[in-house]
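User: Reviewer 2 asked us to show a designed sequence for the structure in our supplementary figure. I'm pasting the structure tokens here. Could you produce the per-position amino acids so we can include them in the response letter?
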């Protein structure tokens, strides 16, 4: 039987909000080609032409800060405005591209090096200004303890301190084996599990829980922007969906765990996704939620 946490939040708040960002990419690469093809198929000629212009403008630039996917300062600015801070899960992918296996192209093309000077600099800047840095375990690391250990140690080398939280890339989980190896490596929490992926937890789907006989915590994922925007619904219909989820979380004294990828904050690339992120935070503040990062959720739960 899963042991859920006591839903009494700090400052007598009715519910909690856990803000997170997965940093899958820091630079746009093959997406120029895929978006060009998509616009061309839809006969959106101007948008297709704009992709070509952007390719020549940004792809060969050595200044990462000008890239459409480098949106860290934008995110920081938004969260400062609301007086909140989030968790950034940085990916340290090691898989190799096989030109004869197209499924590897999307996984490994455009991967970045956390030791790159600009990437390391933003990791340290985020940490020094109060944001949490977690590990986004690579595609195969969920069942490879040596691989996950190496990724954790390398991120800690950049950060200069322990990394306490993890979320596995593509939501890869082998239950309970992945949790066991994460705990063995010293992680205090995981936030990989999506509500739709786990039928056995329906009645307490908004509550963090202890999947092992220890204080290792799972913080279930509630809203991910990519999944939210994958439908053909209008922006207001999507917002109504978000409001219903927020209301449900509040009624159950739960945790609303929000995932917005860093690339989603560029309006030209992903229209209105930034807007919905801000509306979620704004509404939750109006509802007097405790809005924080993943580690603070884990720390509070363990203290109970």
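Assistant: Here is a per-position design you can include in the supplement:
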């Amino acid at each position: 039987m899963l042991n859920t946490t006591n839903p009494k939040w700090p400052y007598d708040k009715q519910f909690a909000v856990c803000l997170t960002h997965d940093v899958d990419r820091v630079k746009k690469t093959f997406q120029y080609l895929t978006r060009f093809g998509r616009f061309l198929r839809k006969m959106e000629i101007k948008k297709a032409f704009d992709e070509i212009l952007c390719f020549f403008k940004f792809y060969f630039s050595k200044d990462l800060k000008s890239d459409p996917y480098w949106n860290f300062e934008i995110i920081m600015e938004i969260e400062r405005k609301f007086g909140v801070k989030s968790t950034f899960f940085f990916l340290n992918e090691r898989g190799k591209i096989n030109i004869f296996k197209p499924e590897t192209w999307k996984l490994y093309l455009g991967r970045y090096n956390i030791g790159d000077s600009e990437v390391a600099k933003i990791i340290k800047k985020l940490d020094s200004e109060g944001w949490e840095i977690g590990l986004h375990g690579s595609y195969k690391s969920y069942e490879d303890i040596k691989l996950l250990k190496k990724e954790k140690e390398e991120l800690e080398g950049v950060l200069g301190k322990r990394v306490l939280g993890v979320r596995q890339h593509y939501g890869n989980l082998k239950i309970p084996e992945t949790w066991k190896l994460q705990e063995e490596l010293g992680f205090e929490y995981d936030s990989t599990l999506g509500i739709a992926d786990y039928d056995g937890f329906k009645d307490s789907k908004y509550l963090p829980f202890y999947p092992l006989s220890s204080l290792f915590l799972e913080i279930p994922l509630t809203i991910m922007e990519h999944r939210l925007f994958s439908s053909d619904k209008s922006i207001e219909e999507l917002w109504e969906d978000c409001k219903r989820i927020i209301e449900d979380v509040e009624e159950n004294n739960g945790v609303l765990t929000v995932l917005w990828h860093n690339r989603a904050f560029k309006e030209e690339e992903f229209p209105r996704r930034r807007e919905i992120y801000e509306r979620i935070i704004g509404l939750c503040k109006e509802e007097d939620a405790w809005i924080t990062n993943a580690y603070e959720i884990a720390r509070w739960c363990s203290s109970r």
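For the response letter, you might also mention the following. The first strand starts at residue 3 and ends at 4. The two ends are 19 Å apart (CA to CA).
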